[in-house]
């Protein structure tokens, strides 16, 4: 792990001293108890936009209005580098996330087509079967470690089937995904990306020689107007998609399960109305709003002023997604989960050209988790004497969650 001296940067001349705030996204006070509440406390205590010396030095936008604007304005806030601290110079870019339009659209299209609502609907029986099998396995025990026994089973089995990779390889792939999204330094993340690329190389070559109907085949044979993407780009693309598919939905399901274990009234509301599709859709949106997950940084593309702040080309900024759901200017009492909230406002899946292509699948998996779990285990809580292990970083997550039920 980097020393604090390596992580921090002296304040550049163009940044006013009053806009400097102590914020380290890998070490947020209070995050061990509630990650999103810890972010909300930062939001209330700091300027709307501030600069932190940690993780190479970068700006942070804390309010929904600004974050949504920055997510949509790729002309000023480029996706050229999306992680903090920055990856070493010369690191292959993460395709298509570290691309801006119009280049980005050509690479993103096959992923969008593969995860269209009609395609995702066809996966429903598979998702439900995986969920039921995982629940029935732990049900008689009256206890489980939820992350290993369920949250890392449902989305990962479904995703590995989508890309047609062996399910037994998850034991190799999951630790790499963990290092990629929550590694506290660039070296850890770079090792994970290289290891994943090494794992994928033979699979990529095989799908380029003999493409199938699976998602991986479509990604590694993207047509760029008569020319296929290079092998290096194909490996980078497959690496990014695998990391996303292996971690983010598992993290969201973990946060939701932890919330329901701690809030029996909310759990009972869901149990009573589990077959009410409109209510369940609204409840899922509210749970997603309250439990923001992924963060992607941006690079300022050119010198310009924004709301009285002078940004300089090359500045990095973190418009953290979860701040939107926590913003009391957009959501009344944002820390409170209200299944009757008229319009939950959040950016859990991003906005603009880079909005998450897997959002439809993620919502479907969350719905199936709630329906199948609550029908079988309507009453559960955190095992007495244990504390959920939460993590912050570029992707927040629940690393351990021990549950018990009658």
List keywords for this structure.
globular, single chain, five-stranded mixed sheet, three-stranded antiparallel sheet, Cytochrome p450, 16 helices, 406 residues, alpha+beta
What does this molecule look like?
The protein is of the alpha+beta class and 406 residues long. The chain has one domain: Cytochrome p450 (Orthogonal Bundle), CATH 1.10.630.10. It has 16 helices and twelve strands. Strands 1-2-8-5-3 form a five-stranded mixed sheet. Strands 4-12-9 form a three-stranded antiparallel sheet. Helix 6 packs antiparallel against helix 8, helix 8 runs antiparallel to helix 12 and helix 9 crosses helix 10. The longest helix has 32 residues. The termini are far apart. 46% of the residues are buried. The N terminus is likely disordered. This is Cytochrome P450. GO terms for molecular function: heme binding; iron ion binding; monooxygenase activity; oxidoreductase activity, acting on paired donors, with incorporation or reduction of molecular oxygen. Belongs to the cytochrome P450 family.
């Amino acid at each position: 792990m980097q020393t604090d001296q390596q992580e921090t940067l002296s304040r550049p001349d163009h940044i006013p001293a009053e806009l400097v705030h102590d914020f380290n996204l890998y070490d947020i006070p209070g995050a061990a108890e509630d990650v999103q509440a810890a972010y909300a406390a930062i939001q209330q205590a700091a300027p709307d936009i501030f600069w932190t010396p940690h993780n190479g030095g970068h700006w942070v936008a804390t309010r929904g209005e600004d974050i949504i604007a920055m997510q949509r304005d790729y002309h000023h806030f480029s996706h050229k580098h999306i992680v903090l601290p920055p990856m070493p110079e010369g690191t292959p870019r993460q395709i298509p996330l570290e691309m801006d339009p119009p280049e980005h659209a050509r690479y993103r299209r096959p992923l969008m087509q593969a995860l269209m609502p009609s395609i995702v609907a066809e996966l429903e029986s598979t998702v439900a079967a995986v969920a039921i099998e995982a629940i029935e396995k732990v049900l008689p025990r009256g206890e489980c470690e939820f992350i290993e026994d369920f949250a890392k089973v449902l989305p990962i089995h479904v995703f590995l089937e989508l890309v047609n990779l062996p399910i037994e390889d998850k034991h190799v792939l999951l630790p790499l995904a963990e290092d990629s999204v929550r590694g506290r330094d660039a070296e850890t993340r770079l090792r994970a990306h290289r290891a994943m690329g090494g794992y994928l190389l033979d699979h990529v070559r095989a799908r380029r020689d003999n493409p199938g109907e699976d998602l991986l085949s479509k990604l590694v044979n993207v047509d760029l107007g008569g020319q296929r993407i290079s092998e290096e780009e194909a490996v980078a693309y497959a690496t990014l998609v695998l990391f996303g598919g292996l971690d983010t939905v598992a993290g969201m399901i973990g946060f939701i399960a932890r919330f329901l274990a701690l809030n029996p009234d909310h759990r009972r509301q869901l149990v009573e109305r589990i077959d009410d599709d409109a209510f369940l859709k609204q409840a899922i949106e509210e749970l997603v709003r309250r439990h923001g997950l992924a963060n992607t940084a941006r690079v300022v593309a050119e010198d310009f002023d924004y709301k009285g702040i002078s940004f300089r080309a090359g500045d990095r900024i973190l418009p953290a997604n979860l701040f939107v759901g926590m913003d009391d200017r957009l959501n009344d009492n944002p820390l409170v989960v209200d299944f009757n909230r008229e319009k939950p406002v959040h950016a859990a899946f991003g906005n603009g050209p880079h909005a998450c292509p897997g959002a439809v699948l993620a919502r479907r998996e969350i719905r199936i988790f709630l329906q199948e779990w609550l029908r079988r285990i309507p009453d559960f809580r955190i095992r007495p004497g244990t504390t959920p292990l939460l993590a912050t970083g570029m992707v927040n997550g629940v690393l351990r969650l021990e549950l018990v039920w009658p």
